[in-house]
Design brief:
By secondary structure, this protein is an all-alpha fold. The protein is elongated. The protein is 51% helix and 0% strand. Belongs to the bacterial ribosomal protein bS18 family.
């Protein structure tokens, strides 16, 4: 009797169909930077297939397009704007400190 009840028991998860991130008209190409940039993290890494909600074939094409765009300098290999700014300010402080020391001698 318990087995019958379990068979007809509905799952508590609600299934919501999500729209695919790549529309049928979109072409996956290294020149389509607006499309490619959606699948890159803030650090410049390629997001996983699970995060992107892509099919295996689409993920492969996106990865190839991103790599081609990086080689052709359409996309950066890494995006370290924050890290670059931090290093720049630290180096400016260091050089100013060294200059003042040299002037005192």
């Amino acid at each position: 009797m318990d087995k019958y009840k379990r068979l007809f028991h509905k799952s508590k998860r609600s299934f919501r169909r999500r729209l695919p991130p790549i529309q049928s008209g979109d072409r996956i190409d290294y020149r389509n930077i607006s499309l490619i940039s959606r699948f890159i993290s803030q650090q410049g890494k390629i997001l996983s297939r699970r995060v992107n909600r892509l099919t295996l074939k689409q993920q492969r094409l996106i990865t190839i397009a991103i790599k081609q765009a990086r080689i052709l300098s359409l996309l950066p290999f890494r995006n370290n704007e924050k890290l670059f700014k931090m290093k720049r300010t630290q180096s400016a402080v260091r050089t100013n400190g060294l200059r003042t020391r040299k002037k005192k001698k």
